[in-house]
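Hi L.,

You mentioned the student needs an example of a multi-chain input paired with its predicted structure. This one should do, with 312 residues in total across all chains.
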Amino acid sequence: MRIGELAELAGTTTRALRYYESRGLLVSRRDANGHRAYGEDDLRVLRQILMLRAFGFDLEETRPFVECLRAGNPAGDTCPAPLQAYRDKLAELEACIAQLSAVRDTVRERLLRAESGTAARPPAVPPEPRCELAAHPTGDTPQVPRITRTVQHRAG
Amino acid sequence: MRIGELAELAGTTTRALRYYESRGLLVSRRDANGHRAYGEDDLRVLRQILMLRAFGFDLEETRPFVECLRAGNPAGDTCPAPLQAYRDKLAELEACIAQLSAVRDTVRERLLRAESGTAARPPAVPPEPRCELAAHPTGDTPQVPRITRTVQHRAG
DNA sequence: GCTGGCGTTGACGTCGGCGTCAAGGTCTAC
DNA sequence: GTAGACCTTGACGCCGACGTCAACGCCAGC
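Structure written out for the whole complex:
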């Protein structure tokens, strides 16, 4: 199977596949003419990646699952590292949900005060972690939520 | 008051202030030497902006509030546009929380299955909107959650 | 042999919200 | 006069996950 076929089967683009390969997540044999050649196991790896991305894992976080698959496990998530990755992501999700709920409550309160004309404003600035929320990107592919850590640039 | 003083009073940086001005959110008089000069109302506008950013509004979304303040309202959120912005943001927050909760449930379920060794995997791909969740960026400033819409680039 | 459709690598563009130089001007204190 | 602390504009850097050219190779069918 060549790259275009694999991409279509998995519902993504050739560009994404080449990008995953550049990150070391996908590997490819090459035909005599240099074209990438894939098999069924590559499709499984790719689907694993895409599913996790859909759950909000960023690419690097999918690596333990990919390695687990490559190690021969039929499911990519039964090794210790993927299990821990699940737990970490769950904790992240819980924290973000709590955070967003707190913000929602604060915004709701401010809306009520503003509607009633009661101009009260405690600084009311919630705590540390950040949650970014985004609309669906292109509308052509069935998009799915995404959760990403975004530690900002501060290194010189 | 000059830019450094204003920035420190509001707990931000001069770079941010110049950026806000470049976006048309802050306006500045100039001293004879070309230095920016600010007053108390500029501090109010700036605080409004920073508070909303802390709630997850992106810069452009703070504009109605700024305009409401400039229109003479003591609170920036009693005009129709800011009220609607509050409501929109609330709806966005609710949607994102629901989305993240659904993902959390799915991930939790997959964790349980993987822990028990039961390799079952329905595609289980949740719906459309995206939520991005990020860690605190630098750790030096008291950071706060952020919610942003990120409609991706597709225009040519 | 020529068009069309696939593939290849490389490199720049995109998004927001600033950080971080760089190269200079201004004012104050010593 | 000179060091230092402030200010100015301009421009590039950063982050992830690709999109989007550009310029080329390979192969099939006409």
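You could point out the following to them. The longest helix of chain A spans residues 80-115. Residues 13, 15-16, 18-19, 23, 33-35, 53, 58-59, 148, 150-153, 155 of chain A lie near DNA strand D (CB under 10 Å from a C1').

Best wishes,
N.
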